[in-house]
């Protein structure tokens, strides 16, 4: 019998890796084999401190016994059952647990398998909502530059990342974008929410004037944009967006895929930032990433219009074979129980001042042109190497990995999002290692 516990040489050819320079990776592989608490371990047994909670998702830390046992128990009881015109109790319980955490009144939950599916689901719900209310002309979707809503055609079209769009021509036709809110000239080295930029939300009024409110279904934004380098919303920005949406009957969708489940020191970004949307997407931290799962929560009125507005039959022609999958539901329930019993958002809140100080201590190192933070998120923006954008940050990423710390880079920005169980000595190690790498790559 094969010894599956032993690291083995890998044939790297077959796996077409996502969002990866495949040729470079396969020539210089970086493997992770095991994970526990705040750390990954390589096949050789080298420990790597996780500064990114995997991909913004293992918020409760790695290898949580409670989650593993819940998955094992459910797998032994029932591996799979459909949720199309059938049900299994654990999916309903998982939805109820999510609804307990979402803002008041956002208590209807649709399950997906990823953030991308959640984005497309949310957009479809928005279109179905207006149609159910007799406003079929509301088909336009407004996103924001530098927004990331995954890789489905809906999320990609509403997303605002050029590189994600230009390889594919079949984008949704009725889409427009708000400007992003990153203004380093005014806001560099801000702690928490920047002072400048609330007025950028007013561009929505211009888009309404241009297209007509009667053509616009929804605006979709991340409360804090993560994938494009940690863009924290300026003070007052989300409030203005909410007010303009309300004025014109436009739905406001938050993509809470990374801001959900304690990342900002509250259950969701909506709570921390004080502005509640009509629809919100989530994934990642929902199951601590132990089993893929996403979800969309909606206001009662959105559910009512679509579900109770129909005389009978299927109300929403949408769903996934694995919506509410038993193993994912078990993982979600166990994860949300850990959030409650260990008060993970509270832990994030408690360490935030120390975290903030540490992130901003990198100011003054060579090529550091901005440091920013909110909740347990941090970012360091670097000036690019002349004629070689992204190279400096990539070199820093590799140097950090080789010296035992995992960070994430996007463009010339290093983004940090550690598990919420991080302690002060981990923060020190993470920031010191990153600082050394920044200095070494000057
Ligand atoms: N939305 C946001 C804000 C994200 O950060 C991500 C992934 O990073 C997604 C959507 C896509 O999620 P997934 O990769 O699970 O499809």
From TrEMBL:
One record GO biological process: biotin biosynthetic process
Superkingdom, taxonomy of origin: Bacteria
Cofactor entry: pyridoxal 5'-phosphate
Gene3D superfamilies: Aspartate Aminotransferase, domain 1, Type I PLP-dependent aspartate aminotransferase-like (Major domain)
Assigned keywords, A-Z: Aminotransferase, Pyridoxal phosphate, Transferase
GO molecular function: adenosylmethionine-8-amino-7-oxononanoate transaminase activity; pyridoxal phosphate binding
InterPro entries xrefs: Aminotrans_3 (IPR005814), Aminotrans_3_PPA_site (IPR049704), PyrdxlP-dep_Trfase (IPR015424), PyrdxlP-dep_Trfase_major (IPR015421), PyrdxlP-dep_Trfase_small (IPR015422)
Family of this protein: Belongs to the class-III pyridoxal-phosphate-dependent aminotransferase family.
PANTHER family assigned: ADENOSYLMETHIONINE-8-AMINO-7-OXONONANOATE AMINOTRANSFERASE, BETA-ALANINE--PYRUVATE AMINOTRANSFERASE
Protein name: Aspartate aminotransferase family protein
């Amino acid at each position: 019998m094969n010894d599956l516990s032993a690291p083995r040489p890998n044939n790297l050819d077959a796996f077409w890796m996502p969002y990866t320079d495949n040729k470079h990776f396969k020539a210089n592989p970086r493997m992770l084999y095991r994970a526990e608490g705040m750390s990954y371990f390589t096949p050789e047994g080298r420990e790597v401190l996780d500064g990114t909670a995997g991909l913004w998702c293992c918020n409760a830390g790695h290898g949580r016994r409670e989650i593993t046992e819940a998955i094992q128990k459910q797998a032994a009881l029932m591996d799979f059952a459909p949720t199309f015109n059938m049900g299994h109790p654990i999916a309903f319980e998982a939805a109820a647990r999510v609804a307990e955490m979402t803002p008041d009144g956002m208590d209807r939950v649709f399950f997906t398998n990823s953030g991308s599916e959640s984005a497309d689901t949310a957009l479809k719900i928005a279109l179905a909502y207006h149609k159910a209310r007799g406003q079929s002309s509301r088909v336009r979707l407004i996103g924001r530059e530098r927004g990331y809503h995954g890789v489905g055609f809906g999320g990609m079209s509403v997303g605002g990342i050029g590189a994600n769009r230009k390889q594919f021509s079949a984008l949704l036709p009725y889409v427009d974008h708000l400007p992003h809110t990153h203004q380093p000239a005014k806001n560099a080295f801000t702690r928490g929410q920047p002072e400048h930029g609330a007025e950028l939300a007013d561009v929505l009024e211009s888009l309404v004037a241009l297209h007509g409110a009667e053509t616009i279904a929804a605006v979709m934004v991340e409360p804090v944009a993560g994938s494009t380098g940690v863009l924290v919303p300026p003070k007052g920005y989300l409030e203005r967006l909410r007010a303009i949406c309300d004025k014109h009957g436009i739905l406001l969708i938050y993509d809470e895929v990374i801001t959900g489940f304690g990342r900002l020191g509250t259950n969701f970004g909506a709570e921390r930032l004080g502005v509640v949307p009509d629809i919100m997407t989530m994934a990642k931290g929902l199951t601590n990433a132990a089993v893929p799962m996403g979800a969309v929560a909606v206001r009662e009125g959105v559910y009512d219009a679509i579900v109770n507005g129909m005389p009978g039959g299927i109300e929403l022609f949408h769903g996934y074979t694995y919506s509410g999958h038993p193993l994912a539901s078990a993982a979600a329930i166990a994860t949300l129980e850990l959030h409650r019993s260990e008060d993970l958002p509270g832990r994030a809140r408690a360490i935030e001042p120390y975290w903030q100080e540490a992130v901003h201590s990198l100011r003054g190192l060579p090529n550091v042109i901005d440091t920013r933070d909110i909740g347990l998120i941090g970012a360091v923006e670097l000036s690019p190497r002349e004629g070689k954008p992204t190279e400096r940050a990539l070199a820093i990423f590799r140097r950090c990995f080789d010296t035992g710390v995992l960070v994430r880079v996007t463009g010339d920005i290093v983004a940090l999002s550690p598990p919420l169980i991080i302690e002060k000595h981990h923060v020190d190690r993470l920031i010191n290692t990153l600082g050394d790498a920044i200095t070494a790559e000057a």
